[in-house]
Amino acid sequence: MTYASRTMTSPVGTLTLVASPKGLTAILWENERAGRVPLGETREDRDHPVLIEAERQIAAYFAGELTEFSVPLDFAGTDFQKSVWAALLTIPFGETRSYAEIAHQIGRPKAVRAVGAANGRNPISIIAPCHRVIGSNGSLTGFAGGLEAKQLLLTLEGRGTLL
């Protein structure tokens, strides 16, 4: 399958949006590490309707005008990963959850580390808000876009101050 892609500038750097015919498949960070989001071939498509809508919604989010996304999503991953990513979508704007809380939510309370690994492979950052998942002690933990980007997103949502 060939995926459509489009880049956009944002307060957290250049983002590459990727879509399948079903929906948004990935948001890749400017300094994306290879292999975090396995994709097939991509080609730039500035006219792809899902990508146009995703860019509009992300820009509105950064402008403080949007707190809930509605762009169609097309997650590719294992059933466990998809359950974690679905749980991320339930975290309200401006709130955070711990990895343990997500593990309990999906009915796998002992799978805290696996939840962390799935969270780290979330292909649709920002929209599936993995930045809202923090350590049990309230500390910031790893984030594909970097901890400064994570802090910026949490600050945008009223959950802290910049580093």
Structure write-up:
- This protein has 163 residues and is an alpha/beta fold.
- It has five helices and six strands, in the order ββββααβααβα.
- The protein has two domains: 60 residues; 78 residues, Arc Repressor Mutant, subunit A.
- Strand 1 and strand 2 form a beta hairpin.
- The longest helix has 14 residues.
- It is globular, with a radius of gyration of 15 Å.
User: What is the fold named in CATH at topology level of the largest domain?
Assistant: Arc Repressor Mutant, subunit A
Number of domains: 2
Q: Tell me the CATH architecture of the largest domain.
A: Orthogonal Bundle
CATH class categorisation of the largest domain: Mainly Alpha
Residue fraction in strands: 5-15%
* Oligomer status: single chain
The structure class reads: alpha/beta
Helix coverage percent: 25-40%
End-to-end CA span = 40 Å
* Computed Rg: 15 Å
Q: Quickly count the helices.
A: 5
Set down the secondary structure blueprint:
Blueprint: E1 3-8, E2 15-19, E3 24-28, E4 42-44, H1 49-62, H2 79-88, E5 97-98, H3 99-105, H4 112-120, E6 133-134, H5 147-156
Parallel strand pairs: 1-4, 5-6
Antiparallel strand pairs: 1-2, 2-3
Characteristic terms for this protein:
14% strand; 163 residues; 2 domains; 6 strands; four-stranded mixed β-sheet; single chain; alpha/beta; globular; Arc Repressor Mutant, subunit A; two-stranded parallel sheet
Please sum up the structure shown.
The protein is α/β, with parallel strands linked by helices.
